Amino acid sequence: MEISWYGNGCFRLRSQLGTVITDPYPPSPTLRLPKLSAAIVSVSDDTLSDEAAVSRNAHSLLLTGPGEYEIGGIFIQGVPMHSRGHTPVTAYVFEMEGLAVCHLGLPWEAPSAAQTEDLGDIDVLLLPVGGPERIGVQAVADLASGLEPKVLIPMYYSLPDTPDDRFHTLDRLAHELGTKLPEPDATFNTRRKGGIGQNTLLLLECRAQVRRESVSVK
């Protein structure tokens, strides 16, 4: 399986069974998705996602909430997160090629013990760094420690060249995890030499079209 990141919560999970796109988003002044197509599109939060940003055929599957799904040998479980009057957020676990990949979305608060148990055993955790009005960085780090995935791949964070005040910066997560930030890779292939590590933090390059903010010099 090959995992690529397109900014915010948008990933492409590509395997021999099919392609999944998570949380495609509408264009912004700084980020724009290239043309993407998929057999499965998942939307964890419709205030952050736009399924129309991805091309789908008549046989594709659009996931917009909790439940159990299957298409082409890919099994998906949607687990509801806390909303407490806010827009509902759904975490998705994709079982592909013998691996469980969890896209946590951007919850408003840390999942309960029961919700964490519902997520099951996770191999690859797509983990939000969070923001001022959403789940906090410390809660994210605690969740990562509790789920014990083999690989952590951050998402929903403010990029250095395209700051976004909805999200925290990546260095705050690294501080809470007590680790240094690795150099980003273009993609992550789960069959790469050496296989998947244990509790490994990986960064992926943003493959969206990035328009850097200009800085005026006075």
Describe this structure in words.
By secondary structure, the chain is an alpha/beta fold. The protein has 3 helices and 15 strands. It has helices spanning 113-119, 137-147, 170-177, and strands at residues 2-5, 11-15, 18-22, 31-32, 40-42, 61-63, 67-71, 74-80, 90-96, 99-103, 124-128, 151-155, 188-189, 200-201, 209-210. The strands form 3 sheets. It has a 7-stranded mixed sheet with strand order 7-8-9-10-11-12-14, covered by helices on one side. A 6-stranded mixed sheet has the order 6-5-3-2-1-13, with no helix packed on it. A two-stranded antiparallel ribbon has the order 4-15. Strand 9 (90-96) and strand 10 (99-103) form a beta hairpin. Helix 2 (137-147) packs across helix 3. The longest helix has 11 residues, at 137-147. Residues 214-218 have low confidence and may be disordered.
Short description:
With 218 residues, the chain is an alpha/beta fold.
Give the overall shape. globular
Biggest sheet character: 7 strands, mixed
Radius of gyration: 16 Å
Oligomer kind: single chain
Number of strands: 15
| Measured distance between first and last alpha carbons | 49 Å
Share of β-strand residues: 25-35%
The low-confidence runs, each spanning 5 or more residues with pLDDT under 50, are 214-218
Structural class: alpha/beta
Q: Overall mean pLDDT score?
A: 91
Main-sheet strand order equals: 7-8-9-10-11-12-14
Helix content: 10-25%
One letter per element, helices H and strands E, the order comes to EEEEEEEEEEHEHEHEEE
Q: Give the count of helical stretches.
A: 3
